[in-house]
Amino acid sequence: MILLTETNPTANVKHEQDERIEYILSDRWIGYPRAKNILQTMEDLMHHPRTFRMPNMLLVAPTNNGKTLLLQKFFDAYKPVITPETKQITIPVLYVQAPPTPNEKAFYANILCALNAPFSPNGSNAMLQLQVIRILKKVETKILIIDEIHHILAGAYLSQRAFLNLIKYLSNELQIVIIGSGIRDAFSAINTDKQLANRFEPAVLPTWKPDGEYFRLLSSFEAMFPLKERSNLTKEEIAIKILSMSGGTIGEISTILKKAAVLAIKSGKECIDLSLLTKINYVGPANRQRQYESMLL
């Protein structure tokens, strides 16, 4: 006896839509020129020989303008490696966040947590420092990434200086590259110590402007989205609308376009145009504070 399975066309269409929406909402790297140049700089630093005065980099960008995704992209390229013969683990790049305030013990704890190393929370700063240095030497770390480095400014002046001295000490003692990352305040944080500031080469991800690079970015998004109709995102009125809504950061541009692409699928329109952009559930960064305040009234 042959059993015939009846297919449900509606269910198939819904499944196909869900797959496309999941694809749209997934994080994907778009290698635009400025980001590629910064990645190349980090790659060059990775291969810098160990010297008594190691070069460093300070990556600065407005909130939600791609710095963390860029750092993650670099970090993913240098995951820990275990040598089968010796069971030796190598961690070429370590990625940590600066603690909320410039606290030496909290910073060492963040490093040890990132290394999955057991430690005593009640241990002295000196003991934690020795443990960090011993492990980083053993795993042959070459680059230490410190994200949200502007948190240094959240402490008193003496705490800021002590934390910067700590960063300088690690760089000197381990002969490793430090990559700091943060918002514009990061410049002020590092410049508290002029000697240390001279070691940090700035790399900036500015907000987007209506230029050729921005239009190429929109083309990349359009090529990435699995919509059935052409959107023409580089059409001037659409491009300017997206830029004005977003405030010029790539994170907001991505959010707008993802919301619009999902709505294009759900509505059956299958493309992004001006009318669709007005219908997405989106509040721009400039209007969010006003919205929060109005909700509290």
List keywords for this structure.
alpha/beta, Rossmann fold, two-stranded antiparallel sheet, 13 helices, 7 strands, 51% helix, TniB protein, AAA+_ATPase, P-loop_NTPase
| Helix and strand element order | HHEHEEEHHEHEHHEHHHHH
How far apart lie the N and C ends? Answer: 70 Å
CATH H-level name of the largest domain... which superfamily? P-loop containing nucleotide triphosphate hydrolases
Structural class: alpha/beta
What's the shape?
elongated
Rg result: 24 Å
CATH topology of the largest domain: Rossmann fold
* Main sheet summary: 5 strands, parallel
Q: What would you say this structure looks like, in words?
A:
The protein is α/β, with parallel strands linked by helices and 297 residues long. It has helices at residues 9-25, 33-46, 67-76, 104-114, 125-138, 157-174, 185-190, 194-197, 212-224, 236-246, 250-267, 274-277, 285-296; strands spanning 56-60, 81-83, 88-90, 93-97, 143-147, 177-182, 200-204. The strands form 2 sheets. A 5-stranded parallel sheet has the order 4-5-6-1-7, with helices on both faces. The protein is elongated and about 65 Å long. Mean pLDDT is 90; it is low at 1-5.
